[in-house]
Write a structure and sequence with these properties.
eight-stranded mixed β-sheet, six-stranded mixed β-sheet, 20 strands, FAD/NAD(P)-binding domain, about 30% strand, D-Amino Acid Oxidase, Chain A, domain 2, globular, alpha+beta, disordered N terminus
Length: about 375
């Protein structure tokens, strides 16, 4: 077993984490890796597919997201872009077996395109970036003509007269990341209790039910990472519905994520291994947890087809919908409330901001528990 990595001189703690989504799972890993005893509780099974962490394309797009966010999210995103390669390398190092599946990670930028009727949306997007981007990052946004678009993505040759290239952006396979984290948490000895309904969180105590039994755990520190499940504790927390398609299409090859301007959404098509693509995402101010609607499926599917007609023969692998947890200011946050730490509000920026937010929370824990 790899020896634990000690974070500064922080004394070992027993930390209870409610919620095994992206933030909870990442936090449990970093803390266990640092030598702490971690108990992880979640209402779902670890391989559930209907969670915000799994209904995502895991786009690592600090530049593109700046058009719809602010400097706080941008700073978190830039920090996370530094952490992701390091974290993935560390996770791979924890699985020395040659049979271990590597986590798909690419950092080849993003291509942004628009059809002729939507050029005004592209112009608006470009102006927002020019206004919001710090001067030191403006050279990462490059205007492209038709030939440059074709050079970046040969599959789109002749389909778009112009575009934008956002240098340095990336993506990872969220399903592979979450599965690899689960294996590593087991290896590190994290106590992971599935199917637990948490009723009460206190400074050093978690109470709930597991099956027909009562659960009462005493720990040194409690962290709430349940996302939308924490709505009854965080007054300004809301759910934003997002819907995603996953398709298989051997007839199209893309080198990087493509964002397509759309009258209602900025849609993306993210390539994955084995000719798979993640297509999304709707963004609805609704806390409906039902299945994907026909309207959303038609909008996402027609946008995909308009990107390249070969997608008309794509095989639909999965339709998914989940609620993204968002605070009123749409910024992720680490909050200390009544002795309990809350990591929440990742909204549409989950994979973009999670490493930086988890890193920030660990620093705060170090300051309060030296």
């Amino acid at each position: 077993m790899t020896p634990p990595v000690v974070v500064n001189s922080m004394r070992p703690l027993h930390i209870g984490i409610a919620g095994a989504g992206l933030a909870g799972r990442c936090l449990a890993w970093r803390l266990a890796r640092a030598g702490h005893r971690v108990t992880l509780l979640d209402s779902r099974q670890r391989d559930a597919l209907d969670t915000a962490a799994m209904v995502a394309a895991a786009m690592l797009s600090p530049l593109a997201e700046l058009a719809v966010s602010d400097a706080v999210v941008f700073a978190l995103g830039k920090r996370s872009m530094e952490l992701w390669p390091q974290w993935i390398a560390e996770l791979h190092a924890g699985h020395p077996s040659p049979d271990a599946q590597p986590v798909y990670f690419r950092q080849q930028g993003t291509l942004v395109v628009a059809h002729a009727p939507d050029q005004s949306s592209m112009s608006h997007f470009t102006r927002l970036l020019q206004h919001k981007l710090p001067a030191s990052h403006r050279d990462q946004v490059q205007a492209l003509d038709a030939a440059a678009v074709a050079a970046l993505e040969p599959a789109l040759a002749g389909r778009f007269h112009s575009g934008l290239y956002l240098q340095g952006e990336g993506q990872l396979a969220n399903d592979q990341w979450m599965a690899a984290l689960a294996l590593e948490l087991d290896r590190l000895g994290v106590v992971w209790q599935e199917g637990v309904t948490v009723h009460t969180l206190e400074a050093q105590r978690i109470r709930g039910t597991a099956g027909s039994g009562e659960l009462d755990i005493t720990v040194d520190l409690v962290v709430d990472a349940r996302g939308f499940g924490s709505k009854h504790l965080l007054n300004d927390l809301r759910g934003v519905r997002g819907e995603v398609l996953r398709v298989s299409c051997p007839g199209v090859v893309l080198q990087r994520p493509v964002r397509l301007m759309h009258p209602r959404y900025m849609l993306y098509v993210a390539p994955r291994p084995d000719h798979q693509f993640v297509v999304g995402a709707t963004e609805l101010e609704s806390e409906d947890t039902g299945a994907v609607t026909l309207r959303s499926m038609l909008e996402l599917g027609s946008a995909l087809y308009s990107l390249h007609p070969a997608f008309g023969e794509a095989r639909l692998e999965r339709l998914s919908a989940a609620l993204r947890p968002a605070l009123d200011n749409d910024r992720p946050a680490c909050l200390l409330q009544d002795g309990v730490w809350h990591i929440n509000g990742l909204y549409r920026h989950g994979y973009l901001c999670a490493p930086a937010l988890v890193d920030s929370l660990i620093q705060k824990i170090q300051e309060t528990h030296p």
